[in-house]
Amino acid sequence: MEKRWDELFIFLCMDIYPSGYTKAQRLNLRRHSAKFSIKEGELFFGNRRAIKTKEEARMLFMEFHCSPSGTHLGIVKTRFAMCSRFYWHGMTIDVDKWVTECDQCKNFGKTLTASEPLESKKKMAVRRLMRAVQVFEFGEPDVLKVHEDVPVPIPGKNQVLIKVHACGINPVETYIRAGVYARKPSLPYIPGSDVSGIIEKLGKDVTSFKIGDRVFATSTVTGGYADYTVSSVDTVYPLPEQLSFKQGAAISVPYFTAYRALFQKAHGKPGETVLVHGASGGVGIAACQIARAYGLTVFGTAGTNDGLDLVLQNGAHQVFNHRENDYIQKIQQATGGQGVNVILEMLANVNLRNDLPLLSVGGRVIIIGSRGPIEINPRDTMAKESSIIGVSLFSATEEDRKEAAAALFAGMEAGWLKPLIGPEYSLENAAQAHVDIIQTGGATGKMIFVI
Length: 451
Ligand code: NAP
What we know:
The protein is α/β, with parallel strands linked by helices and about 450 residues long. Helix content is about 35%, strand content about 25%. The protein has 16 helices and 20 strands. It has helices at about 1-15, 25-35, 55-65, 75-80, 95-100, 105, 115-125, 170-180, 245-250, 250-265, 280-295, 305-315, 325-335, 350-360, 400-415, 430-440, and strands spanning about 35-40, 40-45, 50, 85-90, 90-95, 130-135, 145-150, 160-170, 195-200, 215, 230, 235-240, 275, 295-300, 320, 340-345, 360-365, 385-390, 420-425, 445-450. Strands 8, 9, 10, 11, 12, 19 and 20 form a 7-stranded mixed beta sheet that branches. α10 (about 250-265) crosses α11 and α10 (about 250-265) crosses α15 (about 400-415). The longest helix has 17 residues, at about 400-415. The site of NADP nicotinamide-adenine-dinucleotide phosphate has 33 residues, from α8, α10, α11, β14 and α14.
C-alpha cells in the first residue's frame, strides 16, 4: 500500500515537473510537495491524513487541482484527463467526472481531452504570479510567510478577480492560523476575508460589476492577504467614492458583526443604553457609530487615553477606562442606577461576571469576543430576567446579511459610517500583525494590511 501512495504522490507532484513551468513555479510546487509524507502506510498532507477512500481521493484531487496556491492547476488536469480512467489503489477513478465537477476546470471552458494538453500548457505558461501570505501549517505567527510565486487566481462563474489594495486583519484569523478555531481551512491557505480594491477580471455570468469598479468584499474564495483575490459576487459591494480603500477593508467583519450584535441579537431600540465593552477596536468603533446613528445612548470603554478620545469622537456619549479599578461603578452611576439595557462584550472571559449586575431589567449581554472560560453566578440573571446571548457572524443567513448591508449602505450615504483605521502593516509583516492584534493593548481603530 505504501508504494501505491508513493506512486500517487509522485504522479501528482513529480511527474508534472518538466511540463512548462517557470523556475519559480517549480520551486513553489516542490514546497507544496514537501508537505506530503507517508506515515504508517497512510498519506499525510501537512498534519492531515490525506486519503483512504475514493471520496478522499477525489477531495485530494480537487484540493491539489484547485488550490489557490497550487501552481499545477491545468497540468494536473491535463495529465488526469489524458489517462482519464486512472486505476489507483484498487479503485477505478473516473477523473473526467471530477474534472467536470470542478469549478476551476470549468473556467478553462471545457474538459480537456488527450489531444488538447499542449493548448492548456500554453495557457498555464502565461499565468501571472503574485505575492500572497500562505499558511502551510497551523501554528505560531511565524507560519505566515510571503510567497512571491503564487499564481493569480482565476475567477469562476459568478466570481470576480479583485486587485487588492487593503485587507482587514481580524482576531479570528489568528485563531484559524493557530489551528484552534472550529473551522479549519485545508492547507495550504491564504488568510483574510475583508478586502477592498478594484475589479480586474469578471468570471462567467457576472453582470452586476464591471472591470475597474471600486469594491469591498465580505468574503473571499482564495484569501485576502494577497495582491489579488477571487470573491463571489454575492459577497462583493461597491465602495462609495467618499471611502478610501483602507476604510473599505475595515467594513466587513467589524460593521456586519456590530450590526448583527446590536439589532439581530440584542434587538436594541432607540432610547436604550448600550455599553460597548471594548470600543476602541474594529468592532467597537463600528458599534459606537451604528448605535449613535440609531438613537441609542452609547457608553464605550477603552484601555488608553488615545483610545478613549477616539471612542468619544466616533459616537460614544460617555467613555470609561476598562483598566481603572472603579470603572464599573462609574458606569452604574452614569445610568442613574438603572443599569444598561445592552452590553456588547468583546472580552467575556474577563468581564461577564461584572456585566450581569450592570444590566437593567430585561438587559442583554451579547458575547462578541471571549478568549477563555469564566465563572458566573446564574442568580445574577434571575431577578432582572436578563439574557446572555452569543453572536457569530458566520451564522448570519443571507437575509440577515442583506438587512445589515442595507443598513450599512444607508450609513455610508448619510456619512455616519466612517471606518477608523488603526495600525497599518505590509504583507511582509503579517506575523507581527498577528502578534500585535492579540497581545498589544491600546487599540486605535481597525488594523489593516496596505497592499
Ligand atoms: P480589536 O480591534 O483587537 O479590539 C479589541 C478591543 O478589546 C479593544 O477595544 C480593546 O481595548 C478591548 N479590550 C482589551 N481589554 C479589554 C477588557 N479588559 N475589557 C474590555 N475590552 C477590552 O478586535 P475586534 O476586531 O474589535 O474584535 C473584538 C473581539 O470580538 C475579538 O475577540 C474578536 O475575535 C471578536 N469578534 C467576534 C465576532 C463574532 O462573530 N462573534 C466577529 C468579530 C470579532 P484597548 O486595546 O483599548 O484596551
